[in-house]
Amino acid sequence: MIILGISDGQHDASACILKDGKILSAVNEERITRIKLKGGAPINSIKYVLKKNNLQVKDIDFVVYGSILTPPIFARIFRGVQNEEE
């Protein structure tokens, strides 16, 4: 199983490739763009980890996505309130 991991945080956007639970490669966007704490969509990082591992998008079984806003801040703040109502 091959997994593409993506983080698009406000800073330190990154991508990684895992194969059968082992990290094959990972890179922060700032290493490629040379812009410190580069955030946003890690397009360059995704291209890099795919190329480094001789993979194409069709080879990816799952994409996992993490962000500072996952889940949205509103949902995190009110999670306790939601559980109390049940």
Observed structural traits:
4 helices, 4 strands, alpha+beta, 4-stranded mixed beta sheet, disordered C terminus
Brief write-up:
By secondary structure, the protein is an alpha+beta fold. The protein contains four helices and four strands, in the order βββααβαα. Mean pLDDT is 83; it is low at 82-86.
Summing up helix and strand content along with how strands pair, one would put the structural category as: alpha+beta
- Using the CA coordinates, give the radius of gyration: 16 Å
The helix content is: 25-40%
Largest sheet: 4 strands, mixed
Order of helices and strands: EEEHHEHH
Count the helices. How many? 4
How many angstroms separate the termini?
A: 37 Å
Instruction: Quote the average pLDDT.
Output: 83
Strand order of the largest sheet: 3-2-1-4
Question: What is the total tally of β strands?
Answer: 4
Shape: globular
Strand content: 25-35%
Low-pLDDT residue spans: 82-86
Description:
The C terminus is likely disordered. The chain is an alpha+beta fold. The chain is built from four helices and four strands, in the order βββααβαα. It is 31% helix and 28% strand. Strands 3-2-1-4 form a four-stranded mixed β-sheet.
Q: Topology of this protein?
A:
Blueprint: E1 2-7, E2 14-19, E3 22-28, H1 29-33, H2 43-52, E4 62-66, H3 73-77, H4 79-85
Parallel strand pairs: 1-4
Antiparallel strand pairs: 1-2, 2-3
